[in-house]
Amino acid sequence: MKLLITGATGFVGTNLTIHLDEIDDIDYVKFTRDNTFEELPGLLEGVDCIVHLAGVNRPKTEEDFAKGNSEFTNKLLNWVSNTLAASAKPIPVIYSSSIQAECNNPYGLSKRAAEQSVIDYGSVNNIAVRVYRLANVFGKWCRPNYNSMVATFCHNVCRDLPIQVNDEAAEVQLVYIDDVCAEIISMARTLCADPNKTDVNYAEAAPVYRKTVGQIAMQLEAFKNSRDSLISERVGDGFTRKLYSTYISYLPTDSFSYRVPQHGDERGVFVEMLKTKDSGQFSFFTAHPGITRGGHYHHTKNEKFLVIKGKARFEFRHMVTDEHYELITNGDNPEIVETAPGWSHDITNIGNEEMVVMLWANEIFDRQDPDTFAAPVKKES
User: Which residues span the domain enclosing 329?
Assistant: First the structure.
């Protein structure tokens, strides 16, 4: 399958072409501001579908809305229709419009007129088309201080610059760039498989998230603050995952790393890496040869240990029955050792080098309620 992409160097176009570069069976050509319409017939050779992303949303004058959207689209499709007459090959069109097309402002009117040109092209030529009235698209590589509130907020927050919130309760509709790209690619395959199916003109890129400006600003500030608190937001799923990925993409390179506190004594060091709101925390510690750590039990807390360097002896004692258990593990053979509530546990470096151990606990350590009670595995005689 071969696509012709207009506006290929814009925000959506840049992301889309990167995605397409990862797919072996899809090729594409670009039609940008550097091209002329006279070049279009040559560029259309072998093309199976047009993805029309080009347009203007921040022109110098209101008249430029029509020139850059409706007039450009109409001219583009006239050239495509002329090419079709010569080749007799149906070329479906996917058009990225905007939810602003529902409004009667100059931008919305120009997008709605462009939509109609696309629909008319499909109807006259009996060719499938799809129009996407995209919500506000957010994600990596969107230009800040232009027309995206999310891009501007991300850029400013991670640089300690102020953000302007005029109405915290104002609701915005948002769609993530990767979801848009996946939808366009899927639709291109669908239309190329049946280019004459003209029963549907509109489609939707989903999911669409409805958030207030205040919610977005507050969430971005929480992302920023998590580096100090070490408590991660719930970034593993849904909108928060996508917003966090967007936020991180705007970090300046000198913010790619950040330091975390290190606590050390004669035994070694202990470093907390990451804390979560509902799934515990991650840390690591070191121990010099012969050093024993632990010597306590928990009522509810449990931990998972992974020795990644050195050799360790784990010893356990049941707090009621006095049953003992021992095991040995080392960094050459990764093995998770899990502690159970009600068992005291020690970990001793029995090797000749510094031992390094990763640790996960199912709850964040609370100094006011640590659920950690001293009880060496080996009782003093």
Answer: 262-374
Give the model confidence (pLDDT) of 244-290 as tens digits.
Answer: 999 999 999 999 999 999 999 999 999 999 999 999 999 999 999 99
For residue range 218-244, list pLDDT tens digits in order.
999 999 999 999 999 999 999 999 999
250 is catalytic: no
- Burial of 263-284, coded b for 16+ CB within 10 Å and e otherwise, reads eeeeebebebeebbeeebbbbb
Residues 157 and 25 in one domain: yes
- In terms of pTM, does the model score above 0.85? yes
Give the contacts of 214 (CB within 8 A, at least 6 positions apart): 165, 168, 169
Q: Token match 């093995």: residue? A: 335
pLDDT band at residue 379 using 50, 70 and 90 as cut-offs: low
Q: Are both 211 and 268 inside the same structural domain?
A: no
In a domain, 225, yes or no: no
**CATH of residue 309:** 2.60.120.10
Amino acid (one-letter) located at 346: D
CATH code, domain carrying 130: 3.40.50.720
Burial class (CB within 10 angstroms; exposed 0-12, middle 13-18, buried 19+) of 150: buried
The residue from 28, 95, 107, 244 that is catalytic is: 107
For helices 213-229 and 149-157, give the axis angle rounded to 10 degrees.
30
The pair of three-digit structure tokens given for residue 324, joined into one six-digit string = 């003992």
